[in-house]
Design brief:
By secondary structure, the chain is mainly alpha-helical. The protein is built from eleven helices and three strands. It is globular, with a radius of gyration of 19 Å.
């Protein structure tokens, strides 16, 4: 059995880490890098805040952002899960527009949102392993080849600089993959640092 945690949640260090340490249970944290130096919330976190604030879910994301949202707006009983599934499959640009729109509705991201570099250091110092979860959390099978290659790389080096080792493990956002996604996730084996310096 493998115990894993995804995303850059402050609760990874504040809640999960102490419990795991007390019980002596190993775990791997698949991180995004999005919050190393500032608070940041993903679209689904902002959508949850909109629901907590009592905003009418069918009106929080106008169809002008993406036609796929128009059908949802016609139903009074639309659920947060229906909205979430629809937004997850939008283009990266449309998802960003949704996230920005939600930010305008719910206000700035909380100061405690995400994990800073010190939190990542603490996980590694406590003996937990770290993998990569992609910075932007896009649904990888929907990306074209160039965008897929960027998703596999953007932010990864920043995390590696903090943890001090290569991140050779990846958890696919939303748990979705495909053959070409798995191929893109495989990183070339680098030669030893000394040979790279003399090349």
């Amino acid at each position: 059995m493998a115990l894993t945690f995804d995303d850059d949640l402050a609760s990874h260090r504040a809640v999960a880490m102490p419990i795991l340490q007390e019980l002596g249970i190993p775990a791997t944290f698949f991180l995004c890098r999005a919050t190393l130096d500032r608070p940041y919330a993903y679209w689904w976190e902002r959508l949850e805040r909109a629901a907590e604030l009592g905003l009418a879910l069918r009106t929080v994301l106008p169809g002008a952002i993406a036609p796929e949202l128009e059908a949802l707006a016609a139903h009074d009983e639309v659920t947060i899960h229906q909205i979430g599934r629809t937004v997850a499959y939008l283009s990266p640009q449309a998802r960003r527009a949704c996230s920005e729109h939600l930010a305008c509705l719910v206000g700035p991201d909380p100061n405690e949102a995400g994990m800073r570099a010190a939190d990542v250091h603490a996980l590694v110092a406590a003996g937990f392993d770290v993998g990569f979860h992609t910075r932007d959390h896009d649904l990888l099978p929907t990306l074209d080849e160039d965008a897929l290659a960027r998703a596999m790389d953007t932010g990864r080096g920043d995390l590696e600089a903090i943890v001090g080792f290569r991140l050779d493990m990846i958890a696919y956002p939303h748990g979705k993959s495909a053959g070409r996604v798995a191929s893109a996730a495989v990183r070339p084996v680098l030669p030893p640092v000394s040979s790279r310096l003399t090349a």
